[in-house]
């Protein structure tokens, strides 16, 4: 089921939009799936995986349907178009950009590159587990420095933990499951310093959601520093979790370490969709605004219930439930709501992804009924 | 442009289908639809006989599954991976712990190259063959031992046996091979695998497996079931027409599978997986394509026989023939007629790789080729 919104409604946004969405049947410039206000175990509210529950931009959807007609053919041209779009947007040379099926292949291959050098991985804990998980699977030692008292990534302790054996430093910024950011100047210094001794990978999966003057992408560093890699993904604000497009920004020699000789692995439909979605600023702004609304609803609840939480720079919250997150997850699941898995050692903390504001309100109401 | 075809016509097959498909376009209910042959190629819309694609496009069932998946594609696809793994296991009668799914087979070839580099091993492979694993190994700094195909242009297992060293930790065999569509005799291959799998991983790339109709051919999947150090890779890029959709399947013992696929295989397109789930169960469609491929082969064999040109009997969806002139010259000439043919494959610079598209298109190729070079 979908509801129609006119372009004006879309742009107006705010809670008025939620209302108009239900009544409007006018010719639509944009369409979004309706909020799920009767969740069931079969059709739950998905607040567990940091997805974009609005789905794709209409413009992206449209070209994807068309691209499906030629998905039986190899297509080497479209990825060059996508490369150009990103190159212009990010102001980076095209040969400093690689495209893959989400950022996962880059994260895995960075771990492989580290393994080939028989190096160790330096990272923080908790963080996104693709790099440390892959490294452990390959038998590498992972030095995981706990986050600080403020639950932010602790660069000073990481610096102290650095050794000559470390060949890969991995940071997720904003971090995940804790949606904190690393202060931009401190991070820049850290990257430059560490890059003299190891490959530094900054995973900026949640980059688009950040609205914080202390945050900056580290992408500018890649043009004159071959030891720094930036990863981005379309899985979040672009709604491409199950479509798979991701980017790595790095020096061409470094990109060769984490990509195949020529990229044959891309889905034409995904590439065509990404070309549109990355240029659809109206859509991205809409999603950011909706994310803010949902985050406000969640943070109001935390304040009201006196629960400790980390100010979010992302599309998910991390809060201290004061009880095992598994208990919260089980209780919510019975009510058709999926929340995040446990993230040791923060087993009493819950990661909650933003959903549509209407759904977020529903989640908050249920949470209060269960635990207030 | 698409042409409609009723289920009966579809099953009737042979050249009647091709003819009737054009005449009957516009019939009401149809069980299957495919793209009409391109008999008036242009520069913008050429006949694509250069990349071993499936020019018929995807099965209607797959297309429907792909279209239906669009509304779910903003979600991570965790369950669909297990569902597709389950199907692939069932189709090959192998436990699901022996199955991995990737975005085409590229991913498996790259990972095998990485693990070989991690083990500090050399790569042993025939030449010419599919170039992906060799290129990637080279970029990782691995040493390659390339063994030329034999006099008969088939992969020369004896020469490979002689070239084997202790440092080789990965052996790559594409069977059927590419660009030469020969196969390796099944018993000889099995013996080779049994002999060397204790000391090296053997990756058998069976990308063209579905097209083979040859009693001397056999998949090496049974050796995987015996827990040998063998990886069999398959792809949906060929008979399933997923070149730009990307699904590949890999069969190997659970230790290898665990090493290849991290925490979760988080790289797969949900629509592609739903499409593959439908396509791999659509045997009617696969049989139709096999039949069309044979028709294409016959048309080109006849042309080659008429002209007295040397060629290899094909076990795949492409041919390799000795044009008696540089393949580059053939490609340039045919391109003027808006027909794309394969690139140059050294050292066989006078041989042309021609992908088999549709019979009508192949007939057009044959007519023009005879006119140009006959």
Can you describe what's shown?
Chain A is an alpha/beta fold and 372 residues long. Chain A folds into three domains: 1-34, no CATH class; 38-54 and 281-371, Aspartate Aminotransferase, domain 1, CATH 3.90.1150; 64-279, Type I PLP-dependent aspartate aminotransferase-like (Major domain) (Aspartate Aminotransferase, domain 2, 3-Layer(aba) Sandwich). Chain A is built from 13 helices and 14 strands. In chain A, the strands form four sheets. A seven-stranded mixed β-sheet of chain A has the order 4-10-9-8-7-5-6, sandwiched between helices. In chain A, helix 6 links the parallel strand 5 (120-125) and strand 6. In chain A, helix 3 packs antiparallel against helix 10, helix 4 (78-90) runs parallel beside helix 10 and helix 5 (104-116) packs across helix 6 (130-137). The longest helix of chain A has 25 residues, at 281-305. Chain A is globular. Chain A starts with a strand and ends with a helix. The model of chain A is unreliable at 1-29 (pLDDT under 50). Chain B starts with a strand and ends with a helix. In chain B, helix 5 (106-118) runs parallel beside helix 6. Chain B is globular and about 55 Å long. Chain B is 40% helix and 17% strand. By secondary structure, chain B is α/β, with parallel strands linked by helices. In chain B, strand 7 (168-174), helix 8 (186-196) and strand 8 (201-205) form a beta-alpha-beta unit. Chain B folds into three domains: 1-33, no CATH class; 37-59 and 287-373, Alpha-Beta Complex (Aspartate Aminotransferase, domain 1), CATH 3.90.1150.10; 65-279, Type I PLP-dependent aspartate aminotransferase-like (Major domain) (Aspartate Aminotransferase, domain 2, 3-Layer(aba) Sandwich), CATH 3.40.640. Chain B has 14 helices and 14 strands. The interface between A and B is large, with 53 and 52 residues.
């Amino acid at each position: 089921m979908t509801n129609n919104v006119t372009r004006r409604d879309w742009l107006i946004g705010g809670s008025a939009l939620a209302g108009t969405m239900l009544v409007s049947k006018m010719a639509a410039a944009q369409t979004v799936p309706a909020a799920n206000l009767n969740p069931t175990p079969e059709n739950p509210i998905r607040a567990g995986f940091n997805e974009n529950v609005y789905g794709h931009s209409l413009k992206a959807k449209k070209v994807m349907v068309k691209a499906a007609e030629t998905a039986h053919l190899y297509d080497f041209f479209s990825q060059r178009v996508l490369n150009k779009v990103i190159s212009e947007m990010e102001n980076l040379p095209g040969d400093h950009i690689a495209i893959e099926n989400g950022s996962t292949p880059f994260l895995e291959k960075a771990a492989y590159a580290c393994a080939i050098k028989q190096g160790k991985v330096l990272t923080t804990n908790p963080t996104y587990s693709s790099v440390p998980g892959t490294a452990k699977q390959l038998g590498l030692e992972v030095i995981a420095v706990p986050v600080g008292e403020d639950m932010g990534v602790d660069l000073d302790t990481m610096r102290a933990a650095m050794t000559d054996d470390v060949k890969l430093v991995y940071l997720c910024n904003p971090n995940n499951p804790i949606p904190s950011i690393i202060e931009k100047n401190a991070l820049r210094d850290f990257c430059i310093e560490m890059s003299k001794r190891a490959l530094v990978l900054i995973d900026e999966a949640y980059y688009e959601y950040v609205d914080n003057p202390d945050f900056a992408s580290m992408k500018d560093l890649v043009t004159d520093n071959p030891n720094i890699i930036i990863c981005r993904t379309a899985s979040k604000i672009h709604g491409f979790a199950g479509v798979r497009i991701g980017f790595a920004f790095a020096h061409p020699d470094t990109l060769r370490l984490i990509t195949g000789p020529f990229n044959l692995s891309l889905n034409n439909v995904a590439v065509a969709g990404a070309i549109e979605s990355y240029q659809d600023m109206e859509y991205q702004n809409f999603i950011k605004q909706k994310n803010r609304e949902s985050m406000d609803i969640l943070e109001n609840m935390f304040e009201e219930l006196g629960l400790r939480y980390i100010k979010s720079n992302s599309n998910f919250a991390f809060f201290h439930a004061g009880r095992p997150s598994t208990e919260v997850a089980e209780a919510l699941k019975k009510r058709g709501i999926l929340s995040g898995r446990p993230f040791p050692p923060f087993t009493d903390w819950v990661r909650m992804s933003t959903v549509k504001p209407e759904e977020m309100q529903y989640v908050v109401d249920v949470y209060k009924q269960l635990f207030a | 442009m698409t042409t409609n075809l009723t289920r009966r016509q579809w099953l009737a097959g042979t050249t009647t289908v091709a003819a009737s498909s054009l005449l009957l376009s516009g019939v009401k209910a149809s069980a299957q639809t495919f793209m009409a042959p391109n008999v008036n190629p242009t520069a913008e819309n050429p006949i694509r006989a250069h990349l071993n694609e499936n020019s018929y496009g995807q099965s209607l069932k797959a297309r429907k599954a792909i279209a239906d998946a669009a509304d779910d594609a903003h979600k991570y696809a965790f369950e669909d991976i297990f569902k597709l793994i389950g199907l692939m296991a069932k189709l090959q009668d192998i436990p699901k712990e022996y199955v991995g799914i990737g975005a085409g087979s590229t991913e498996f070839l790259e990972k095998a190259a990485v693990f070989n580099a991690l083990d500090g091993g050399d790569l042993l492979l025939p030449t010419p063959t599919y170039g992906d694993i060799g290129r990637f190994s080279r970029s990782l700094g691995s040493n390659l031992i390339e063994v030329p195909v034999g006099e008969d242009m088939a992969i020369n297992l004896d020469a490979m046996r002689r070239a084997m060293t202790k440092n080789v930790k990965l052996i790559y065999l594409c069977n059927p091979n590419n660009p030469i569509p020969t196969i390796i005799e099944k018993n000889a291959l099995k013996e080779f695998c049994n002999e060397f799998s204790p000391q090296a991983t053997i990756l058998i790339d069976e990308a063209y497996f579905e097209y083979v109709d040859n009693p001397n051919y056999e998949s090496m999947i049974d050796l995987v079931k015996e827990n040998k150090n063998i990886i069999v890779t398959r792809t949906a890029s060929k008979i399933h027409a997923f070149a730009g959709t990307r699904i590949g399947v890999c069969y190997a013992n659970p230790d290898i599978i665990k090493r290849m696929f991290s925490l979760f295989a988080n790289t797969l397109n949900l629509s592609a997986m739903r499409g593959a789930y439908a396509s791999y169960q659509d045997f009617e469609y696969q049989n139709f394509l096999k039949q069309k491929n044979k028709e294409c082969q016959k048309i080109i064999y006849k042309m080659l026989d008429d002209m007295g040109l040397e060629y290899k009997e094909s076990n795949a969806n492409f041919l390799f023939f000795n044009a008696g002139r540089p393949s580059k010259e053939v490609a340039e000439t045919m391109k003027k007629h808006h027909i794309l043919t394969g690139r140059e494959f050294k050292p066989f610079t006078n041989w042309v790789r021609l992908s088999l598209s549709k019979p009508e298109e192949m007939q057009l190729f044959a007519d023009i080729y005879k006119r140009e070079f006959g």
